[in-house]
């Protein structure tokens, strides 16, 4: 019996126009699509009715598909002869467990291919008018997960080193860090980062309800709470955030032309006393 191929596909940040040409073709040709919960609804609606769409979300509320079950589904469908798209938000190998799934498929003898996508680590900042690197502001870019508790002794992240990178002029992008925003900002302050360092949070980047809030290391937690920032959101720390002030007017005007995005929305004004 023919063994199908599994394609580990990045869906990008959410706007279907930001899918790669190859990703779009594979969605049309697949027998089965196993998609994550962060993949936008507009992209989930793209495959034809003949494709079997299966939700394999991992949710923070406890309802989740285990990684072992996802691995099993990929192998079972492929060995039954199906071509499978394993669809992930952003890029499959940037905090998307694409590497782990590739190892599982290889161990099972299932042919696979990795199809990169636009990672939100870059797209989230860029679509909001914040260049992750800039010749005048930042020559380095560090991307970390914001899930970990920065105070735990066995953390895989060295927040002291991250703080030094920001202080030296680098850009820090934190993915999946809404829940631990206060802890992460406190860890950077403890590492010596200036409390006035600019910070931005971009919620649902490139989607119709995209939303951006800006502040500083000291104020961003309160600002995010004021406007109700919810996951998925990207946090950007560094001087590049100030570039947004010089380009945001154009972004608001041009945003109306985005086929799936609509106008770029900004945070409401800070209440005055």
Automatic annotation (TrEMBL):
<keyword id="KW-0949">S-adenosyl-L-methionine</keyword>
<protein>
    <recommendedName>
        <fullName>uroporphyrinogen-III C-methyltransferase</fullName>
        <ecNumber>2.1.1.107</ecNumber>
    </recommendedName>
</protein>
<dbReference type="InterPro" id="IPR035996">
    <property type="entry name" value="4pyrrol_Methylase_sf"/>
</dbReference>
<keyword id="KW-0627">Porphyrin biosynthesis</keyword>
<feature type="domain" description="Tetrapyrrole methylase">
    <location>
        <begin position="5"/>
        <end position="220"/>
    </location>
</feature>
<dbReference type="Pfam" id="PF00590">
    <property type="entry name" value="TP_methylase"/>
</dbReference>
<comment type="similarity">
    <text>Belongs to the precorrin methyltransferase family.</text>
</comment>
<feature type="compositionally biased region" description="Basic and acidic residues">
    <location>
        <begin position="264"/>
        <end position="273"/>
    </location>
</feature>
<dbReference type="GO" id="GO:0032259">
    <property type="term" value="P:methylation"/>
</dbReference>
<feature type="region of interest" description="Disordered">
    <location>
        <begin position="254"/>
        <end position="273"/>
    </location>
</feature>
<dbReference type="GO" id="GO:0004851">
    <property type="term" value="F:uroporphyrin-III C-methyltransferase activity"/>
</dbReference>
<dbReference type="InterPro" id="IPR014777">
    <property type="entry name" value="4pyrrole_Mease_sub1"/>
</dbReference>
<dbReference type="InterPro" id="IPR003043">
    <property type="entry name" value="Uropor_MeTrfase_CS"/>
</dbReference>
<keyword id="KW-0808">Transferase</keyword>
<dbReference type="InterPro" id="IPR014776">
    <property type="entry name" value="4pyrrole_Mease_sub2"/>
</dbReference>
<dbReference type="InterPro" id="IPR006366">
    <property type="entry name" value="CobA/CysG_C"/>
</dbReference>
<dbReference type="GO" id="GO:0019354">
    <property type="term" value="P:siroheme biosynthetic process"/>
</dbReference>
<keyword id="KW-0489">Methyltransferase</keyword>
<dbReference type="InterPro" id="IPR050161">
    <property type="entry name" value="Siro_Cobalamin_biosynth"/>
</dbReference>
<dbReference type="InterPro" id="IPR000878">
    <property type="entry name" value="4pyrrol_Mease"/>
</dbReference>
<comment type="subunit">
    <text>Homodimer.</text>
</comment>
